[in-house]
Specification:
It is built from 22 helices and 23 strands. The chain is α+β, with helices and mostly antiparallel strands. The chain folds into three domains: 38-231, no CATH class; 279-595, no CATH class; 623-781, no CATH class. The radius of gyration is 32 Å and the shape is globular.
């Protein structure tokens, strides 16, 4: 036995050197294999070293130091099919996720990591958090070579498919278009670039489909997508807890180590890391420069004449940062030429850009990339689409020309267009700084103050540039020295101070308590209120002023002046009528917006964001008297014939038919919104459960019948169409399973009353009216 053990041990001793020799030989062969694998491929050094060739093969060489590190992978559309999806456009994000590259055996796994659910490492519940939040494996790649303190993997197939984590096409879109899988023969990897803190891959994916988007005859859908893999800071920034009374983009978190008797859900703000360069001076209240200011580079494609306005739009925010104790916190720079800096690239995540895109898209966006662990914004790109100029030119004329001579042309003066562009860039920079839309801000100023030159030049037309309060449509002809274009306001200063003020020596929890008390002193003042949606008529898009009825009355007075002059202000000698047709279509949309600003008051609920220690009630019904006043406005400005919207002299120049339908569509759309399941159920509930005496559903229906039917002894064509549409809407509501039975009872009574009214009305001697009333009666009685 001892001899046998000795023989086995000796054998092992002999085997070990042989295995070691084999491994060394394999390594040498692997090195040769790597050289042959990447032969002829273009190497780009950076966060991940990439090898790419014209045939579309792509390898990543992942440094060992990158393994298990926190990386962010952000996927965005570069180009998408026309009319594909109302919620997607070039630049839209398809996914954003924290990832790790992990070595396991002979493979590199790509793992999606979540920091949303957390617990203290020493807390026993930490083990449960780990066990119940197992990170999904998005992909696994065979290691082709181990060389240069890293691992070579081929990722061609991963980027030639709609792989896990990309979310290029949602499951609902695939269902809607009956799409198949990716056709790799018509797909490609288009470009690869690597930089010190990020690696970029752009590829095209093509799908076959049984249903092409509207206007697209091809049964093919192709998408170009860019993926950014970004290194996250190794020294995470301290978090700032969200306060729901101050608008801020934020991230969801759940703390399982909370002392509360539940998991503690909270949100953290997304912010740039701004730290004082001289902390002692900062503590003394002096303005100091940040250690690392926020810098935006202007796209070299930006036309020279617009660059000063872009620069101003960026640097306008310095006045707000001064409230937080910083000077020169944000700046605009020209992108260096290749001669000045051959290594500069807009794709490098170390640089934020304002991009100028030659596109027919009428839009501008302000996306940013943030650290999901802390909310720190890493970089952002502001995108200006060239044709956005056209939208602002048209809106400027339609909304301000009655009181603003500079707007009475389609050849808008350069300084006026430049001012508009400046403010759009400021708005998008605001998003990139962390600020969402604040639609409540536009209701803070008294309506008549917006007719004052002194007030508007100082205060602008809303308390923030983050509202959709683009133009002053309230000022009337004869009002002097009016500011017509939006600008930054007091809310912007307040919000930036909340987000960027440093509190040396305080923990995030202590900062939260400090800021709570500070916000207590501001959040009930309309100048500093935040709101972004819901049923609050003071939280709307495109509106200005504290009284929607008064504001819209002023607006319609102006719009009627514009309507009378539309031909004179848009047509030039020997021009076609195309611009006039376009302007008239937008003219009707402007009218619709003014009407809907008042429409929202019906069934409205005023919201004020409060904490429990503050006086007031968060949700209060809009008073019945105000709702009835809104219905008075709708009766005069919507339900009754509005012939001024479709003047024969204007419409005859570009349309042989269809103009009347556009007006009746506005009436019908408004009626459907008021008499919708959602609105009626909400009114029934709000009337019973919320503070404030609002308008009842029964009173609303009685009033609509009075205005649309009983007050009109001889309804003309548009009124007759409205009456039919109201009956259709009432009857369709009875078929809605989600409508409260109480409301169905009201509808039954209303239709009975209408039947009695129509029986009397049909006795008219007018043949057209007789036919109309007979038809309406048949709809009611045969339902």
């Amino acid at each position: 036995m001892k001899h046998l053990l000795y023989t086995m041990a000796l054998g092992l001793l002999l085997i070990v050197p042989a295995n070691a020799q084999k491994k060394e030989k394999d390594k040498e062969e692997t090195k040769k294999d790597m050289a042959s694998l990447v032969k002829g491929m273009t190497l780009d050094l950076g966060l991940l070293n990439t090898y790419f060739n014209e045939e579309g093969h792509l390898f990543f060489h992942i440094p060992a130091a990158v393994l298990d590190q926190d990386l962010l992978m952000v996927s965005r559309y570069v180009q998408i099919p026309a009319n594909f999806n109302a919620y997607s456009n070039a630049g839209s994000k398809t996914s954003e996720q924290l990832i790790h590259f992990v070595k396991k055996a002979n493979k590199i796994q790509l793992i999606q990591v979540s920091y949303s659910n957390i617990a203290k490492g020493k807390d026993p519940i930490y083990l449960s958090v780990v066990q119940n939040n197992f990170n999904p494996i998005l992909a696994a790649f065979e290691i082709k070579s181990e060389e240069g303190a890293g691992y070579l993997i081929e990722v061609t197939d991963y980027f030639m498919d709609d792989s896990p984590g990309f979310n290029v096409v949602s499951s609902s879109d695939k269902s809607d278009y009956k799409m198949g899988g990716v056709d790799k023969k018509r797909s490609s990897i288009d470009g690869v670039a690597s930089f010190p803190i990020n690696t970029e891959v752009t590829h095209t994916l093509t799908y076959s489909t049984d249903k092409a988007p509207q206007g697209n005859r091809s049964e093919t859908l192709s998408f170009q997508v860019n993926h950014s893999i970004i290194e996250l800071p190794k020294d995470p920034m301290p978090i700032r807890y969200e306060d729901q009374r101050v608008g801020w983009f934020s991230l969801d978190k759940v703390n399982y180590s909370s002392e509360a008797l539940k998991s503690d859900a909270y949100r953290i703000a997304r912010r740039w890391r701004l730290e004082p360069s001289d902390m002692e001076a900062y503590k003394r209240g002096e303005l100091v420069t940040p250690v690392k200011p926020i810098v935006y580079y202007l796209d070299p494609a930006t036309p020279l004449k617009w660059r000063p306005y872009f620069r101003k739009g960026i640097e306008d925010w310095n006045s707000a940062f001064e409230k937080a104790g910083f000077k020169n916190a944000i700046m605009a720079k020209e992108a260096p030429s290749s001669e000045e800096d051959p290594d500069f690239s807009p794709e490098d995540a170390r640089f934020s850009m304002v991009r100028y895109v030659a596109s027919t898209t009428r839009n501008a966006t302000g996306p940013s990339v943030s650290d999901p662990r802390t909310g720190e914004i890493i970089e952002s790109d502001i995108i200006w689409y060239h044709n956005h100029l056209r939208s602002y030119r048209n809106r400027y004329l339609l909304e301000t020309a009655a009181a603003n001579p500079k707007a009475r042309t389609l050849d808008t003066p350069e300084e006026e267009i430049g001012e508009m562009m400046r403010r759009v860039i400021s708005h998008e920079i605001g998003h990139a700084l962390g600020l969402p839309h604040n639609m409540k801000a536009s209701s803070a100023y008294p309506v008549d103050s917006l007719r004052s030159g002194t007030f508007t030049q100082k205060m602008g037309i809303a308390t923030t540039i983050m509202d959709y309060a683009r133009f002053n449509y309230i000022a009337q002809p004869g009002d002097q020295n009016i500011r017509f274009v939006r600008q930054l306001g007091p809310y912007d200063n307040y919000a930036i101070e909340w987000g960027y003020r440093n509190f040396p020596g305080q923990s995030p929890e202590e900062v939260r308590e400090t800021l709570k008390k500070w916000v207590d002193g501001y959040s009930t003042d309309p100048m500093y209120m935040f709101g972004s949606g819901g049923n609050d008529p003071n939280t709307q898009t495109e509106n200005i002023g504290d009284d929607p009825i008064k504001a819209s009355n002023y607006a319609l007075l102006n719009l009627k002046i514009v309507g009378r002059n539309l031909k004179a202000w848009t047509l030039e000698d020997a021009s076609t009528f195309n611009d006039l047709e376009e302007l008239h279509g937008e003219f009707l949309e402007v009218y619709r917006r003014y009407i809907y600003h008042v429409l929202t008051m019906v069934g409205g609920v005023n919201e004020t964001r409060l904490n429990n220690n503050q006086p007031g009630t968060p949700y209060v019904n809009v008073l019945k008297e105000r709702q009835l006043a809104a219905l008075d406005f709708l009766n005069q400005s919507l339900w009754k014939p509005q012939a001024w919207l479709i003047e024969r002299a204007v419409v005859s120049t570009f349309a042989s038919s269809g103009a009347l339908e556009k007006v009746t569509d506005i009436q019908q759309g408004a009626l459907k919104r008021i008499l919708s399941v959602k609105k009626l159920n909400q009114m029934l509930s709000s009337q019973q459960t919320l503070a404030g005496a609002g308008l009842s559903v029964a009173a609303l229906m009685d009033r609509l019948v009075l205005d649309i039917f009983k007050e009109l002894s001889a309804p003309e064509l548009s009124s007759r169409e409205l009456q039919k549409n109201m009956i259709i809407q009432l009857l369709s509501l009875n078929e809605e399973k989600d409508l409260q039975p109480e409301i169905k009872g009201y509808i039954y009574q209303i239709t009975q009353d209408l039947a009695a009214y129509l029986k009397k009305a049909q006795r008219t001697s007018d043949p057209i009216l007789k036919a109309h009333y007979n038809y309406c009666l048949s709809m009611v009685t045969n339902s």
